From TrEMBL:
Residues 22-349 form the Enoyl reductase (ER) domain. This is NADP-dependent oxidoreductase. It comes from the Bacteria. GO terms for molecular function: oxidoreductase activity. It comes from Streptomyces arboris. SUPFAM superfamilies: GroES-like, NAD(P)-binding Rossmann-fold domains.
Length: 351
């Protein structure tokens, strides 16, 4: 017997515009009326939702050009989620019991247009894996900066949701050497031991751990790790790491920019900009390509990724590094922890 639907849903709302980086005090867990499913709609009981750094941009008031709506005080947060259909409206193609993905996370129940839900089959062995950021990594490394056999690939922010998949995917696509970057010595060890990075560079104030001497710059670390240069960059950070990559690039290197966390997660900015000075002369004389990746420009990538990801997961050739945070009450704290870089891989709230 199907249990009755609740009359309210628990939601995470933005209650005040953050001054600098958001903290849990800027959010509230509220009970909101849960309407019935109207025609073409379904009610989904969420099981998992993704905590992603792009929320900082949506909250910070600099979302111009971003293909998602900005968030203002009083708005409920949103993002990728996996859940079970528990009620359907007239004309819905979905059925009670279907597992689906959608973008109405940050609540325990959601009324969603069935056309905006994607049914989850058995392509992936674990439903939570549908929240991976692998499509961005895979799309960038196959569409914008295709990896060729033997390439040296640099992945910045290699311990994040995109980076922890980008490194292993680059290897599976034929890379001969994979170099990752992180701010944390502990994560550096995991990137080498668990994900097979050939070298890991430490950025920021921890940089002196990577190369002897307190004055070791990121550019010097990269020159030591890749003395013959890099062929591919998958960049999630920007800043000095992007600038150094231009200097270390081999002729014809391909750069794919997936994020700009150096600006997005800066307390001195509002989340919608990440200025950096790069040597445009070097881009010209080395014949570099430098492109930004947007999933909306490559609609076939997600289906292709899911097929390959499922096969790689089942064969053990790849894993899905993620941290499960139990309970919607901990979601605001999880966002702060993500911004502070406390977790390895994707950060997922288990509702």
């Amino acid at each position: 017997m199907t249990p009755p639907l609740p009359r309210t849903a628990r939601e995470v709302r933005l209650v005040s515009a953050p001054q600098g980086l958001p903290t849990p005090a800027d959010f509230a867990i509220v009970d909101a009326p849960l309407p019935a499913a109207g025609p073409g709609h379904v009610v989904v009981r969420n099981r998992f939702f993704l905590v992603f750094p792009g929320l900082r941009t949506l909250i910070g008031g600099e979302a111009d050009g971003v293909p998602l709506p900005a968030l203002s005080s009083g708005d409920t947060l949103f993002g990728p989620a996996v859940g079970e259909v528990v009620a359907v409206g007239d004309g819905s193609p979905l059925q009670v019991g279907d597992t689906v993905t959608h973008l109405q996370g940050w609540r325990d129940h959601a009324v969603v247009d069935a056309a905006h839900c994607t049914p989850v089959g058995d392509t992936l062995p674990d439903p939570v894996a549908h929240l991976s950021q692998g499509p961005s990594a895979y799309g960038a490394l196959t569409r914008l900066a295709p990896v060729r056999t033997g390439d040296t690939v640099l992945v910045t922010g290699a311990a994040g949701a995109v980076g922890t998949l980008a490194g292993p995917v680059a290897r599976l696509l034929g890379a001969g050497r994979v170099i990752g970057t992180t701010r944390s010595p502990g994560k550096a060890g995991r990137l080498a031991a668990e994900l097979g990075c050939d070298a890991v560079l430490l950025s920021g104030p921890q940089a002196s751990f990577a190369t002897p001497g307190p004055q070791a710059s990121f550019a010097a670390q990269l020159a030591e790790a890749a003395p013959e240069g890099i062929d591919v960059l998958l960049d999630t950070v920007g800043g000095e790491q992007l600038a150094a990559a231009v200097g270390a690039a081999r002729r014809g290197a391909r750069f794919a920019l997936v994020g700009a966390l150096s600006g997005q997660l800066s307390a001195r900015r509002a989340g919608g900009s990440a200025p950096v000075e790069i040597d445009s002369f070097r881009i010209v004389v080395k014949g570099l390509s430098l492109r930004g990746y947007s999933g909306t420009d490559h609609p076939g990538v997600e289906e292709e990724w899911n097929g390959r990801f499922g096969a790689w997961l089942r064969s053990g050739e790849i894993t899905f590094p993620h941290t499960l945070i139990p309970g919607i009450d901990r979601a605001p704290q999880a966002l702060q922890e993500l911004i502070e870089g406390r977790h390895f891989g994707a950060v997922v709230v288990e509702v």
